[in-house]
Amino acid sequence: MILGVSIPAFFVAMFIENPKLRTLAFLLVGFLLLHGLYHATAVLSSYYDIDFLEFLSLSVAQPLSYLVLALFAYKLYKLGDTSHERLRLQLH
Amino acid sequence: MSGYVYNSTSSVYGSANNLGDWLSLARIFGTLMVLAVAASRTKTFGSLQTEMLAFVIILFTAEIPEILNTLGYASIAPIQDFGSELHAVSMVVLTGFVGYRVYGFSVRHEQLEPGSTGDQRIVEAIRGLLASNFGTMGAKAIDFYADANIAISNPEEYTKTLTNVFGKGTGHVLTAITQGLAKQFGISITDGAPLDECINLLGPKAQTHQNPA
């Protein structure tokens, strides 16, 4: 499901021209792909009992996906964060 | 971490997994805090910030039982199952939110219903003005991350967001929006008037404004 929605989200990101919005879009796609990879490798490691897949799932894909989610949240927070001085300079 | 049953003691990667669990929990908690601030600034449920906050709250709640179990602080097998199910719910919620916005970006064409409120009319007018300035795709890209609903709930926040997106060109964008709104709703507004002043003036006018057929 998560991997499925990442495909149209990726195409949306390709259409965005503004660099700041494009960065946000690709961070969201990155989270969706990495978290989808985490679920996929977790299922495979559980099914085939392969330690490496478990490592890939729990120690690589999952922490990385949450790191990308944290970056996305920070960028989204920064999108609405401007000092009054900068706001005044940009508007006038 | 959630959704699958692992036997960490038999794994050569067990200790790395514990560290990974802690780091993941810390990151989700940090994300939750940052999104809570971002969502509170938008002051509307119709923003990406609020939608992401709802997703992360469910995700964070789902991770707590699993992490306690993995670290051996509590034997909570029934709650662990609940955590796994909640994690699945968070994925459904995220897919729904992202899918809805992707649908809005690529397919949906907003049309005002006859009984639409004044706020909805203003939101659609802003979307239309963005589209006439940046093209349909450009306007939808802006709306994906900086929902026009924020212009109603917190015009100052919307202005700040546009400032961060457009930099020095923001003044022209805002003038185009405020003057366009004034023209559409038949009010007079000075050049360079802030968006919140314009929204306040529009409130009563938008309630009674008739949509063009």
Q: In summary, what is this structure?
A:
The complex is a heterodimer of chains A (92) and B (213). Chain A has 92 residues and is mainly α.
Helix and strand arrangement:
The complex is a heterodimer of chains A (about 90) and B (about 210).
Chain A: H1 2-15, H2 19-48, H3 51-79, H4 84-91
Helix pairs in contact in A: 1-2, 2-3
Chain B: H1 14-42, H2 48-70, H3 77-106, H4 118-145, H5 149-153, H6 155-166, H7 170-185, H8 195-208
Helix pairs in contact in B: 1-2, 2-3, 3-4, 4-7, 4-8, 6-7, 7-8
Can you tell me about this structure?
The complex is a heterodimer of chains A (92) and B (213). By secondary structure, chain A is mainly α. Chain A has one domain (2-91). In chain A, 88% of the residues lie in helices and 0% in strands. Chain A is built from four helices and no strands. Chain A is elongated. The model of chain A has no long low-confidence stretch (mean pLDDT 85). With 213 residues, chain B is mostly helical. Chain B contains eight helices and no strands. In chain B, helix 1 (14-42) runs antiparallel to helix 2 (48-70) and helix 2 packs antiparallel against helix 3. Chain B starts with 13 loop residues before the first helix and ends in a 5-residue tail after the last helix. Residues 5-14 of chain B have low confidence and may be disordered. Chains A and B meet through helix 1, helix 2, helix 3 and helix 4 of A and helix 1, helix 2, helix 3, helix 4 and helix 6 of B.
